[in-house]
Write a structure and sequence with these properties.
By secondary structure, this protein is α/β, with parallel strands linked by helices. Helix content is 39%, strand content 17%. An 8-stranded parallel β-sheet has the order 10-9-8-7-6-3-12-11. A two-stranded antiparallel sheet has the order 1-2. A two-stranded antiparallel ribbon has the order 4-5. α3 links the parallel β7 and β8.
Amino acid sequence: MNQVLLLRGRQLQLSTPLVMGVLNVTPDSFYDGATLGAEVNSGFQVDVDRALRRAETMIHDGAAIIDVGGESTRPGAIPVSTAEELDRVIPVIEAIRVNLDTVISIDTSSPEVMSSACGAGAELINDVRALAREGAATAAAASGAAVCLMHTRAEPRVMQQDIHYADVVEDILDFLRQRIEAAVGAGIPREKLLIDPGFGFGKTVQHNYRLLRELERFTELHLPVLVGVSRKSMIGSVIDRPPELRLAGSLAATAWALANGASIIRTHDVGPTVDTVKIHCAVMAAD
């Protein structure tokens, strides 16, 4: 597996697992996006200063990457226009770039948002649709950014309906192989790619835990593996707690993911997740 991820003009070392902090600037994320803005004149207006402070706190707590998202991808989420997504994310990316030294990721599937966000300072594209939208692969290649290819089976609005896999692990491995081939064919070097099995995206609870149990299989693709399980319903369904009480369960799942090949952990809770990574590294380094 690659231990270095090539960004735009620099490298990200992955010999030790890294933490990606979630910075949702949306009114309808399942956990905390609406805290970074307010409804103004029937639209959501981002509080850039508050978002910048949140990013600063996450970096202080040990985040190596800040993942900025302007459109919720929770199950049942309604799409937003490209213009609205740009209005939400670009001022935040620009503020982070000017004020903080960190890798900025843009969580989007829109080719226009990819291009504008990378122009504003993003170095990583985190695409839940794995560059499947028309023009996305071309835009990503032209940006020079690294790209995370995530598995999902449908649009967020309907992705939890009629879920079926012949074999969830093998099916998702095949999907990711195809998307890697497509990305490379579009001109994105493998050294700029990482993969995400897509926990919670078009999977049942059993599917999610099968993927987590067999996460090491995804290292067969010889690319870094990103895992995002933070406070998701797969955690809540087991411990029977709402999102605000799912930290302990999220950290337990994170510890398993780290032990089975995860290189980047995407989380709402940077400090506790960084502590979990440190304990994992201490175990791995013990004589």
